[in-house]
């Protein structure tokens, strides 16, 4: 639906149209529908343009868990469910709003909407997130990410048994033309992406993995694992069945980089989120292989 409206209402951006949809200002045959609703061609669509809420980050008193801090940057432990910055209908409760309340200065490279934000995590991914305090640090860290000098390790639980101890997926990732909220590897084209997986523990119905990614594509780990028939637990978007977990099981566990001013190596680790620990403890492991961390 949002794609069709963008074609018909060319004076408005797709994100603006999606905002109308999320605010129930678009009706299909008198009913509220999602942006992903498939248009059949016989519907009557009633769209009411409304002014967007200001996309300017504002300070909010929201607790943050600080994992590391120096004069150039701060690393936080982002909880699942927290959006990194405002946009697409989300204006409050963001990481940026919490940062603005706690810190006087953040880098301006990302603009007023994304002060300090060097990289992002999906809304329901928890774990380590780096934030730059000044522009020089932001540019340095961005360069490290772009040149793949930053080492990013995740923890995830997937459906089904994986027999191999280690595996690597090297498949380009592109936007799914049929479901625009998803990414896909099925087109055989797109942005290059590779992920390496190491089995940490096996369960009767699941496999617990450590993941090293050499690229940072949208939904990379989720779409790569789904492409081999092992969707992340709780990830309904990529084919996982419903789960009592309430989120998908993906955690940014460790990030390693060079301190922007000194060049000294820095490693920041976030313990597995409590709700993930609790869910995992409720599962009975089948075997405990010897673990070699990536």
Keywords, please?
alpha+beta, Pseudouridine synthase, Structural Genomics Hypothetical 15.5 Kd Protein In mrcA-pckA Intergenic Region, Chain A, 14 strands, 25% strand, 3-stranded antiparallel β-sheet
Give a short summary of the structure:
With 294 residues, the chain is α+β, with helices and mostly antiparallel strands. The chain is built from six helices and 14 strands.
Order of helices and strands: HHEEEEEHEHEEEEEEHEEH
Classified in CATH, the superfamily of the largest domain is Pseudouridine synthase
Which fold name fills CATH's third level, the topology of the largest domain? Pseudouridine synthase
Helix-residue proportion: 10-25%
How many domains in all? 3
Tell me the radius of gyration: 20 Å
CATH uppermost class of the largest domain? Alpha Beta
Terminal CA distance reads 43 Å
Average the pLDDT over all residues and give the rounded result. 89
CATH 2nd-level architecture of the largest domain:
2-Layer Sandwich
């Amino acid at each position: 639906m949002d794609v069709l409206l963008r074609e018909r209402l060319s004076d408005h951006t797709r994100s603006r149209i999606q905002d109308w949809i999320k605010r129930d200002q678009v009706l299909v045959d008198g009913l509220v529908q999602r942006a992903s609703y498939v248009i059949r061609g016989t519907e009557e669509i009633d769209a009411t343009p409304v002014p967007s809420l200001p996309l300017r980050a504002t300070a909010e008193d929201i607790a943050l868990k600080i994992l590391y801090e120096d004069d150039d940057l701060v690393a936080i432990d982002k909880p699942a469910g927290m959006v990194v910055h405002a946009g697409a209908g989300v204006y409050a409760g963001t990481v940026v709003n919490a940062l603005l309340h706690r810190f006087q200065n953040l880098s301006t490279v990302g603009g007023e909407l994304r002060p300090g934000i060097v990289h992002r995590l999906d809304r329901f991914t928890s774990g380590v997130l780096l934030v730059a305090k000044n522009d020089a640090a932001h540019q340095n860290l961005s360069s490290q990410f772009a040149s793949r000098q930053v080492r990013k390790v995740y923890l995830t639980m997937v459906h089904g048994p994986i027999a191999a101890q280690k595996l690597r997926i090297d498949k380009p990732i592109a936007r799914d033309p049929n479901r625009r909220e998803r990414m896909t590897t099925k087109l055989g084209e797109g942005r290059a992406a590779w992920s390496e997986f190491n089995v940490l523990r096996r369960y009767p119905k699941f496999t617990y993995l450590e993941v090293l990614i050499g690229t940072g594509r949208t939904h990379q780990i989720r779409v790569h694992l789904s492409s081999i028939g092992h969707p992340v637990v709780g990830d309904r978007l990529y084919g996982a069945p419903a789960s009592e977990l309430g989120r998908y099981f993906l955690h940014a566990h460790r990030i390693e980089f060079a301190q922007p001013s000194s060049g000294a190596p820095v490693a920041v680790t976030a313990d597995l989120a409590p709700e993930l620990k609790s869910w995992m403890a409720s599962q009975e492991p089948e075997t405990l292989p010897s673990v070699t961390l990536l």
